[in-house]
Request: fold
Amino acid sequence: MPSVPWLNLVLAPGLGPAGAQRLLEHFDSIDAIVSARRQDLMAAGIDRQIATAILKPDPQKLGRAEAWLSRRQHHIISCRDERYPVFLREIPQPPPVLFVSGDPDTLSLPQIAIVGSRNPTAGGCDTARQFAAHLARAGFAITSGLAVGIDTAAHLGALEAGGLTIAVCGTGLDYVYPPQNEGLADSISMQGALVSEFPPGTESLRSNFPRRNRLISGLTVGTLVVEAGIRSGALITARLAGEQGREVFAIPGSIHSPLSKGCHQLIRQGAKLVETARDIVEELGGLIDAAVDAYATAAAADTKDKSEDPEYRRLLTAMGWDPVSVDVLVERSGLTADEVSSMLLILELDGRAETLPGGHHRRREGRPK
Reply:
């Protein structure tokens, strides 16, 4: 039996979420599937060629996926895993597995998708960045698709606010698309997570991106469209969100701008018109407390106290008991700025540190009761 049997399913060409779901319902467990005979898989409605691929996955593809999973903070989460996102589980034919680079527990936080044009106006980028920062401070993780334009602005706004952000990718996570966002992808994996249903080795294909959009809407409680033309892919994400029973928000713009026409169309179709991030927080704010409690419970389940980790001890020692900036912590601890920012967020959630006005941080004694 393979070391990671779920890889047999996702590496089988042509199987897809529908075929995987059919097999899981028929055999009940992944071990039973990969231990079955080919004729048994075919009896469950699987094509002969696909059944063969499940039982004998391509060695090169399997080796590549296993090598990726062997690295630090690389995870595979199956639909039978307790960490599999609750909201995503509710959509029709959810992906059988998710590949995650970063902290998989962030997927359990309430998420808002912010999407829009790849060629936005400067004002659209500023708006996306500001909305993302405000919503991140309000307790939402900001989810988008790592594309240039509005997606990039949304991720950056969350990162700059010290919040969490999730990038849903249309490639395997050993590729970054677009390539110019490689640095951004590294920051997201340190302060949130990169997520894909595609195994390592999957390159950028046009057909992958509607599936990526389905994940963006499926992971989130609502989708905000900032700027979008009438044929924008962001409208696909918004449509999928509506079909999945999620909230859809749109920011209106000038009647003369082509990038406002998609948002105005959504508003005519029933999307909620928003002018400030507060409009969204008031609509969805009740979700925050329960989700943060769930995240805290998941963090507490980790048997190793973060403050006992050598790097966290080093950071706490460098912090001392007086307010200190990130730059000073980087200098004192020898850690990178990305590492410090990510660790500070964990320490704050754990009750070991607090953020003060002016971007300073201070150590706290003990944990909140």
In short: The CA atoms of residues 116 and 227 lie 5 Å apart.
